[in-house]
Each structure stands twice: as C-alpha cells, then as structure tokens.
Amino acid sequence: MIAVTMLDATPVQMGLLLAAENLPFLLIGLPAGVWVDRMRKRPIMVSADAVRAVCLIAIPICAYFEVLSLPVLFAVAFGVGFMNVWFDLAYGSYVPALVPRDRLIEANSKLSISLSAAETCGPAVGGGLIQLFGAPAAILFNALTFVFSGLLLGGIKRKEDAPPPPEPGESLRKTIGQGLRFIWNDLLMRALTARLAGWHFVVAAMEALLIIYLTRTLEITPSVIGILFSVAGIGVLIGAALGERIPQRVGTGNTVSLSHLVLALVALLIPLAQGPKWVQLAMVGFAMFTWGFCAVTYQITNVSLRQALAPEGMLARINAATRFASLGIRPVSAIIGGYLGAYLGLRNAIWIILSIGLVLAIRGLMSRRVRELVDLPEQRTAQVDAPVAETAS
Asked: What region holds the Major facilitator superfamily (MFS) profile domain (predicted)?
C-alpha cells in the first residue's frame, strides 16, 4: 500500500517488490533447511521475530525524515524475507516436536485458527490505521506485533530436545541433496511439491497486481481493502475450524485437489468485478472469502502430509527443499505478473494468471496418486537413494 499510494509504484515495480521479499527462499532456502535441522527451533523463531521488527521500523523512520523510497522498500522486503526463511522452516519443524504424529492435522488446524483470527482482525486494523494515520503508522504497528510474537514464543515452557549432531563426514552439499532426492524419489511428495509450485506461481503473480488493481482499477479505499482482506481472514477462520473434519469426510487427497479447484474457479470473480460499487465489492469479497477458506484447507492438509511423510530428523531439510521448489518460483512469477499488468492492463493480466491457475487445478484433480489418498500415509524411512514404489502411497 505504501508503494502504491505514497510512491506511485508501477505494476513492474510491484512485481519487483514482491520478488525482493521472496528471493531469499531461492538464495538460502536449501542450506538454511540443513542448519535448522541441526539447531533448536524456538531460538531461531525468536531471533527472526526480533530482526523482522528492526527491518520494519526502518520504514516509518525513513518516512519521518522524508527519505522513504522504493529502494528502501526493496531492502526492507528482502530483509524481512530473509528472516522469513529461517522462521518458517523452524516453525514447520517445531510442531512435530510438541505433539504426537497422530495429532498433526488437529495441531495444524488449531494453529491455523489462531492465524486466521489474526488475518481476520489484522487487515481491518491495518486499513483503518492507513486511512487515519498513514501507511507508515501501520508498518510501525506491524513491527510491534513481531516483538509481541517473539515474547510469546520465548515464553513456551516445554523444553526442546537438542537435535542429533551431524554424522562424521556429512557435508552440507550431501545433506541438502538428501532432501531433494527424497522429494524426487517419493512419488507422492513429488506430486504434492509440483502442485505447490504451480500454486505459488499463480499466487505470486496475482499478489503483484492485486493491491494496485483494487486501488486504481476498482478505486477502493485502503480501509475497505483492509475489510476485504479481513473477509478473507473469516474464510481462513472457518476453514481452519473445519480443517480436521473435511479430510475425514472427503479424504486427505480429495481435500487437496478440491480446495485447489474451488479456489481457482471462484477467484475468477475478481477480474469479473464490474458494475455498481456494491456489486464489485460483493464479487471481490466472496472471492476473497472463498480464497481464504480453500487456501487454509489446502495448507493444513498439505503441511500435515509433508510432516507425516518426512523421515525422522529430516523435516527441516525436506521443508527447505519443498520451499525451494515452490517458493523459489515466486520471484520470477511476481516479475512476470508485473510485466503482464504493465503491457496488457491489470484486468487482462489477472484473467491470464487466474486462467493458468484453473488449468493447473484441473490437471491436479486428475492425479490419482493424490486423489485416492484417504488418510495420512506412513512415515518414510531415511533411505532416499532408491525410488519409492508408487504402491507405498
């Protein structure tokens, strides 16, 4: 919002801004996964919160001294993204240390409920702060929430066991290769990772254009945009509350496939939004609500599958390899989305991006390997050199 309303960013610059935030996953995601596997997870998360707070505080300080610019935003986005790598890898590997394997879906659902409550309230609060005090004030508030997060994580009483030391002669390159080979050799993990990469390609290209489309094409104010994102948060809240029941009713694989397809279909309402303002807001609001509901349903199930499949002591490097394959595509797709918006127009570009998403969702629905999965599969062994038989999934 700062880039669009204060610095008059173009679609290409918006793509570059999003790319700057996601570039660290491509640069350090793989070795970070190895290092996280060898370290306690909670100190990593607390440190990442502290550094992200410091990065974000730079924005209101630069705005106060009237030196805020797009290069400053690029630098802050890269710094926050760099720490996101460490926090997300540690976060995804910390949950199995707190709960038994048979409660992973329940645990991830409850964590998603707390996340969705924040996503319901946060955008509305942010939009109101932007409307009343300006976007830098909202960023200052955001920085304080990272401080609060670090304090809460630091207060967890349960002692985390020290990870086992690396085996003698185990190199960083070899360890990284284990995560990549596991994903490639396990047919189910390969299918899930490929689908996740396609998902992130579409989402990043869409995110590069969404704010600028809502602001300039539909002429929606920041406070109303905040409400629309809060509507998405309500969808996330409901999806998280049902995150354990839906796989039980329709099966784990069907949950992944159908949530992806429904999201892709309903998202088409965003470029379709025309006519009176209330009609536009209703169409975008319903699309955002469905997006939140389906996205969190997909995420809970996908993360739980990965946690269930990962061999003992390899979850962080598998998470890193998965994120490298999926999030690594986001900088490229964000820039592509920005250029499409610049040369084809925002609405036409969004049509193209979401049409690609629909094709990928239909293709994913045809994958029997995922669709026929009813329950969480058995945990894999650490042997990653030989391909895993398809019957194992």
From this structure: 186-393
Per DSSP, the three-state class of 24 is: helix
Mean pLDDT across 338-346: 93
Classified as helix, coil or strand, 203 is helix
For position 375, what pLDDT does the model report? 59
CA distance 373 to 189: 12
Name the nearest CA neighbour of 307 among 258, 379, 215, 357: 379
Number of alpha carbons in the 13 Å side-chain half-sphere of residue 344: 14
pLDDT score for 342: 92
Residue matched to tokens 């269930």:
308
The SS3 assignment for 381 reads: coil
Query: 391 in a domain, yes or no?
Result: no
Tell whether 164 is covered by a domain: no
Residue 382 has φ and ψ, to the nearest 5°, of -80, -5
- 383 in a domain, yes or no? no
**In whole angstroms, how large is the CA radius of gyration of the chain?**
21
Round to whole Å and give the CA distance between 177 and 34: 10
Q: Residue 392 falls within a domain, yes or no?
A: no
Question: Which range has the worst mean pLDDT, 133-147, 195-209, 318-332, 347-361?
Answer: 318-332
- Count of domains for the chain: 1
190 Cβ contact partners less than 8 Å away, ≥ 6 residues apart: 183, 184
Q: Are 130 and 226 in contact (CB under 8 A)?
A: yes
Pair 360, 202: CB distance under 8 Å = yes
- The predicted-structure confidence for 12-26, as pLDDT tens digits, reads as follows 999 999 999 989 988
Whether pLDDT at 386 is above 60: no
CATH code of residue 35: 1.20.1250.20
**Gap between the Cα atoms of 48 and 60, Å rounded:** 20
Q: What domain range includes position 219? A: 2-154+172-374
The answer to whether the CB of 205 falls within 8 A of the CB of 339 is no
